[in-house]
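Colleagues,

For the teaching module next term, I've prepared a clean inverse folding example: a structure given as C-alpha cells, and then the sequence designed for it. I'd like students to try predicting residues themselves before seeing the answer, so please don't circulate the second half yet.
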C-alpha cells in the first residue's frame, strides 16, 4: 500500500513541478509577462483577459513559503478577479442596452400596428355593414320577386336563384 501511495505522490509532485516550470517559462514561450510584472508596471488594468487568466493561474499555483507576504498574492488574485468581473459586467451592460433599444423599437412597432388596426377597424365595420345591407336587400327582393333579376354593379343581371346561392356561400 505504501508503494502505491508513494507512486501517486510522486506523480502528483511531478505534475505540479511540470506545471510550475511551464508557468515560470511561460514568459519565454509566449507574451505572458507574469503577475509581478503586470502589477509593478501598472499594466494590470490594460492586460488582455488571457494574460489576466494566466496571472491568476500563476498566483493560484505558485507557492509562497512566507505567511507574512501571502496576503499580497491573495490581494492580487482578488484584484485580477475584480478586473475580469468588471469587464464581464460592462459587456453585459452593453448587450442589455442593445436589447433594450431593440425592445423599444418593437414596442413602437406594436403601438403603430395597434393604431393602424384601430384606424382600419371602423372602415372594416362600414364595409361589413354595406355587405350586410346588400344581403338584406337581395333577400328581401328575392322573397318578393322569386323570378326577378337583380342588376349587378359591374353590369349584367342575376336571377334570384343565383343570388340566394351566392348569399349561402
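(Answer key — instructors only)
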Amino acid at each position: 500500500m505504501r508503494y502505491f501511495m508513494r507512486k501517486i505522490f510522486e506523480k502528483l509532485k511531478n505534475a505540479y513541478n511540470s506545471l510550475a516550470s511551464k508557468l515560470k517559462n511561460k514568459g519565454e514561450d509566449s507574451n505572458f509577462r507574469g503577475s509581478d510584472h503586470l502589477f509593478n508596471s501598472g499594466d494590470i488594468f490594460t492586460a488582455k483577459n488571457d494574460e489576466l487568466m494566466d496571472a491568476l493561474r500563476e498566483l493560484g499555483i505558485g507557492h509562497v513559503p512566507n505567511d507574512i507576504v501571502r496576503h499580497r498574492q491573495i490581494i492580487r488574485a482578488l484584484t485580477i478577479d475584480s478586473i475580469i468581473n468588471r469587464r464581464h459586467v460592462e459587456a453585459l451592460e452593453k448587450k442589455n442596452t442593445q436589447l433594450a433599444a431593440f425592445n423599444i423599437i418593437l414596442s413602437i412597432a406594436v403601438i403603430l400596428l395597434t393604431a393602424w388596426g384601430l384606424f382600419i377597424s371602423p372602415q372594416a365595420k362600414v364595409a361589413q355593414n354595406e355587405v350586410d345591407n346588400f344581403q338584406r336587400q337581395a333577400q328581401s327582393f328575392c322573397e318578393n320577386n322569386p323570378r326577378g333579376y337583380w342588376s349587378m354593379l359591374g353590369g349584367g343581371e342575376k336571377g334570384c336563384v343565383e343570388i340566394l346561392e351566392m348569399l349561402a356561400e
